[in-house]
Amino acid sequence: MNSVPSKIALNFRGIEIFWRIADAFQSGGRPDEELWERLFKTPGYAALTRSEFAPQNLRKAISIALDPKRAYEARSSADTRLGAFVEHFREAADRRLEIEAVVDELKNRSLRLGDTILNLVEEYLPPEIPREDIEVALVFFELDARGYEWIVVDGLLAAEMGELLHLLIAHEYHHRCRDAVLCYDKKKVDEQDTDIMWVLNQIHAEGIADHIDKPRWFYGENPVQAYSNLVEQYRTEVKEAGETLALIDEVIETGCLAGEEHDEMGKSIREILPLGGHPIGYFMSNIISKANLSVEMIESVGNPFEFIRLYNKASALQGTTALSDSTMDLLSALEKRYC
To answer: Are the C-beta atoms of residues 136 and 185 closer than 8 Å to each other?
Structure first.
């Protein structure tokens, strides 16, 4: 039964408190502890710090970026991981008026945005999967987005995406819907299988979700200048995906014959996998679609193992090289263990 989300929730509290912190530094003072606590309790920053980013590191970078008294630290941190965050937060502060205009525009079109996002995602989800409310938090962290319990979008990226922002949000929303019906529990994967299962999940999740945004973005007009090299790399990796997939297949086949442990094979595969599995997944889903197996691919959106089987079936139908029996046997064993 299809459950349509009742609303889209856009949360800008992270950006609003960021501006208050910036104002405190610009006036020659320092933000009080309560303000920092409120920042990291906003939905966006709470999701980021629970899953990926240490709050003390973000706080340090924000402080260096916004405090005029720490200009030397800002310069000396260049070309480091910290420096990348510092530069990002400084750019956000410099483009405040532009970003505030983007926020106002998003508030005005939130209802239309929700409908647009849902329509994009519908094509790539079976009707029985519940559609939760679309919850999006805009904050500053890096020029990217994340699909946690809240979809977290960087404010600078939102400004640069412009009219294509809904594509990015729809991509992340698809991940949320898919994860709700995933056939295995990621938290229960044994340590030795972590890398292999991560690769499998990435290829499947991104391979389908990339159909939502990449045709108009990476294969259309890219509005994000900082992504120019990434776009070219993505296109190149998609062209070479068949060869890369063959290398991964060889690693598994050789590893199985040699009796390698799963963690050793998984580490080797992750080293080969380009761009978090996006290009290979997109390549594989295109092969499946060309074999007129799209319906089966969407119906099994919660099962990455079925995705691989469909790819092999599609390859056989089109006369191209399929994955080896060793790879399929390994995946079959993992499916029995976890699904």
So the answer is: no
User: Per-residue pLDDT for 2 more than 60?
Assistant: no
Query: Which SS3 state, helix, strand or coil, does residue 47 take?
Result: helix
Which of 141, 163, 181 is the last residue in one of the domains? 181
Which structural domain range is residue 216 located in?
Answer: 186-338
Regarding whether 7 and 156 lie in a shared domain, the answer is yes
Phi first, then psi: what are they for 11, rounded to 5°? -115, 125
| Same structural domain, 250 and 153 | no
Residues 205 and 312 in one domain: yes
**pLDDT for res 261:** 96
CA 147 to chain centre: 6
Q: Look at 41-45, 107-111, 198-202 and tell me which has the smallest mean pLDDT.
A: 107-111
What does R_g of the chain's alpha carbons equal in angstroms? 22
Are 242 and 135 in the same domain? no
Same domain, 104 and 217: no
Six token digits for residue 148: 């946690």
Q: For residues 178 and 143, what is the distance between their CA atoms, to the nearest angstrom?
A: 24
Among candidates 4, 32, 17, which has minimal Cα distance to 138?
17
- The mean of the pLDDT values for the chain is 94
**Contact call for residues 6 and 133 (beta carbons, < 8 A):** yes
CA 175 distance to own-chain centroid: 8
**205 and 68 assigned to the same domain:** no
**Beta pairing partners, 150:** none
139: phi then psi, degrees, rounded to nearest 5 = -145, -175
Same domain for 251 and 107: no
The three-state secondary structure class of 146 is: strand
Phi, psi of 135 (to 5 degrees): -110, 115
- Average pLDDT for 162-179: 94
Residue corresponding to tokens 């029995």 = 336
pTM of the entire predicted model:
0.91
pLDDT tens-digit series, residues 278-315: 999 999 999 999 999 999 999 999 999 999 999 999 99
Of 138, 165, 181, the residue at which a domain comes to its end is 181
